[in-house]
Design a protein that fits this description.
This protein has 339 residues and is α/β, with parallel strands linked by helices. Helices cover 29% and strands 25% of the residues. The chain is built from 11 helices and 17 strands. Strands 3, 4, 5, 8, 9, 16 and 17 form a 7-stranded mixed sheet that branches.
């Protein structure tokens, strides 16, 4: 098998390895598609806790090629996806059902080898069969869709809500679709890049605002009868945009911080303002028990991802894929290891 190995931060090498044989309770997948995520870029730069040497890649789909003893819910030859998060199962959050907040969480593609390879070994318990007819590339994006399913639930979008989404990268565009599916009356997207604004409008955004040229607050007030937004979702991961999200929320509004901000980033909040307006500020982390829902949404067409894939590259071009992600030129890059 071939794999894109990160020996350490800033390095990427294509290496040849023997394909692993699955032990009891494991599945070996022939990887057909693996999404390149901002987390992969942070890992490559040494900005995210990972275990080197590492084969990264946590958004992937492929074909079940071999199964270890005791695996009965999968069949060789079927298309499958992987939920990469591996909770310990014994810490207090895990015991309370908050497995995604595990204190000793590990993950395929972060702390053990992932999908930037022709083959990947995974615990069979983390492998789900994909619905028939779903392409490998679409199935690979079940993981980010699953994260967004959790996020939209945390935001509590309700019928008739005016929703603001700050940032129209892949995540913002997925959350846009999910907000509309939950009955939002208007979704306003803030995005400086014209290409992404056009995509947001095509997917149903009521307005796609260039924050450098337009007054986003005025656009929101116009849509919300002079008030703030019912829901604001920040998908950028910056202090300025997080502050903006809080400021844009109306009375009784909910603010979801979905973007991954640097640990040292801070914002200023008035406790009185939060109290008086009854603003709810919440976060969203990973995809607890939402992978199956994501696959169902993709199969039904309620969430569309194929047109959001801007680049499909072979495994050898992973360094170029990371550069595309870093530059912001791509909506979504998918690596196809078998190409």
């Amino acid at each position: 098998m071939r794999a894109a190995l990160f020996p350490g931060p800033g390095r990427c090498e294509i290496v040849e390895r023997a394909a692993p044989a699955p032990a009891a309770g494991q599945a070996l997948l022939r990887v057909e598609a693996c999404g390149v995520c901002g987390t992969d870029l942070h890992i490559h730069r040494g900005e995210f806790p990972a275990r080197f040497p590492l084969v990264a890649g946590h958004e992937f789909a492929g074909v079940v090629e071999a199964l270890g003893p005791g695996v009965e819910h999968l069949r060789c030859g079927e298309t499958a996806v992987v939920d990469p998060n591996l909770p310990c199962g014994v810490c207090r959050p895990c015991r309370r059902g908050l497995t995604h907040l595990c204190r000793d969480l590990s993950a395929i593609g972060v702390t053990r080898d992932g999908g930037f390879a022709t083959h990947c070994l995974a615990p069979a318990s983390q492998v789900l069969a994909a619905p028939p007819g779903l392409s490998f590339a679409a199935a690979a994006l079940a993981e980010p869709v699953a994260c967004c399913v959790h996020g939209i639930a945390r935001a509590e979008v309700r019928s008739g809500d005016v929703v603001v989404i700050i940032g129209a990268g892949l995540i913002g565009l997925l959350l846009l679709q999910l907000a509309l599916a939950r009955g939002a009356s208007a979704v306003i997207v803030s995005e400086p890049e014209e290409r992404k604004r056009r995509i947001a409008l095509r997917l149903g955004a009521a307005r796609a605002v260039d924050p450098r040229a337009e007054d986003l607050g005025a656009v929101v007030r116009e849509a919300a009868d002079g008030a703030g937004a019912d829901v604001v979702i920040e998908c950028v991961g910056g202090s300025d945009t997080a502050q903006e999200a809080v400021d844009l929320a109306g009375e009784g509004g909910r603010v979801l911080l979905f973007g991954v901000a640097p640990p040292e980033a801070t914002i200023s909040i008035s406790p009185y303002d939060i109290y008086r307006r009854e603003v709810t500020l919440t976060g969203s982390f990973t995809n607890p028990f939402t992978q199956a829902a994501a696959l169902a949404l993709l199969a039904s067409g309620r969430v569309e991802v194929e047109s959001l894939i801007s680049h499909r590259l072979p495994l050898d071009e992973l360094p170029q894929a990371l550069e595309l992600v870093a530059s912001g030129q791509a909506t979504k890059v998918v690596i196809e290891p078998q190409a």
